[in-house]
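Ticket reopened. Same input as before:
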Amino acid sequence: MTECPAGTTVTPQPVIHAAAIRKTYGRTVAVDEVSFDVQPGEIFGLIGPNGAGKTTTMECVGGLRVPDRGLISVLGLDPRRDVYALQERIGVQLQEAQLQKRIKVREAVGLWASLYRKPVDGDRLIEQLGLGDKRNAWFMTLSGGQKQRLFIALALINDPELVFLDELTTGLDPQARRAIWELVRGIRQRGKTVFLTTHLMEEAERLCDRVAIIDHGRLVDIGTPAELVRRHCPERTVIMVCEDAAAGERFRAIPQVQSVTIEGLQLTIRGAGSDLVTHVIRCVAEHRMRVNDFRTELPTLEDVFLKLTGHMIRD
Amino acid sequence: MLRGLWKLTWLEIKIFMREPLGVIGTVGLPVFIFVVFGRVLGSPLRRASPGVPRVLSADLPILASFVITTSTVLSLIAIIAIYREGGILRRLRATPLRPYTILTAHVLAKLLFTAVTLAATLLAGRSYYSLDAGVPLVSFALALLFTTVCLLSLGFLIASIVPTARFAQPIGTLFLYPMLGVSGLFVPVASLPPVLQAVAHALPLTYAVSLLRGIWHGDGWSAHIGDVAALTVMFLLFTAVSAKVFRWE
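Engineering reply: fixed in the latest deploy. New output:
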């Protein structure tokens, strides 16, 4: 069970509780014994390569698919039995979904608003998502980013407590992606919980409060991005340009340092532990070395993923 | 329950109207063909005459009805396939809309366009095919509505099993037109070879032709209880089976 890994706080009422869910398609095991909790008010990311089982997991949690085994509770409801009650309280954006080519933005928002008991003001939502001047545009004429903003609007129309976002920024250019991230942070600010999937490690790192890494249908680890990096990739790298001829020897004397490589004036110092940088700086100060350039490299979620699964996320 | 049905139906109608080719194909083309036929064949159409086959003289309204209904069913199959392939059905299903509401909206929109096409054909054909005063138009319209709904349920069954949008139209055509061939509209069922007769009796179009033809020519509904029963059974069967096998994505 990976339900309560070290470092996460366990509160009595998670928004999503998934325990040992399993889903197979024929002989393919899409999701295998996946367990996790999502806490109120956080952005929780399910990360992994395409085909890892992220979408299937999300669709099981959202009541769009029925798992073969396992227990799921969302906002205290059973997503299978109480699917219609649940739909009033959640918002969904699906991967690769489309709308009718010739439906207008305001018509789509109006239709969605008519389907829920307590919708928010559709016109205001359109404005808030920056689609004001597109309200009469056909869906087919919208750009990728505009389509995703419309899907976010549709996911927010019922003022949901929990929002599902599946591969929200796939296929968008970096600028549109950043704009969407801001919108997602805005959703959290309104006190809602966000459950998203992504195969972009940068997105997970910048956006998510906690992430679960999933690969080949299995949950590999779970925690905040910083926690995961600390736990699995404690290595730190300091790169500096230094004219001191004895610098290499001095740095090698620091116990936390594992290796020093020297190329011309540039030294690359590798070691473990978060206090490596402190030790290096102290050493520089003690010996009054002349340092022309100094930077550190921290491992990223991408490195964590590689370490945990043995392959790159894009493979 | 019915939440969103009217709104969705109205939207689907508006969206359909925004695609000129679709409107011309479904509404304009049948009317156009009817008018061209009328002009070419001229006055013989007005009354049965020895040189004109029965299907063009006495049964012309039945033929026209089926051409229109068939194109309605085909366009239903196509739109369901396109919506499925585009992920539109998947998206709509993830809302409080009930699955049957989504599908009913399409049926209602299609029925409306069928009615419009029929009315337009009737108007355009007035000068080539004069209506007898005694034709029971209301009964005929009811019978046509009934058969169209039944055939749309067959359309759903076909839409449930077509693999992609590209195949929807050809597969639909492959099912529907041969059915029309053995339905008794062109050749009486009784004069078909025994095997084809058996096939004809297993197909809904045969009963639909019998019902519509009878009602048009003045039969009472009581004379066609068998047809109505057969169509009802088939409607229930098609609906039940497609509810089981329908794929949303």
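The radius of gyration of chain A is 23 Å. The interface with chain B takes residues 62, 64, 84, 87-88, 92, 94, 96-103, 107, 110-112, 114-116, 138 of chain A (CB under 8 Å). Please confirm and we'll close it.
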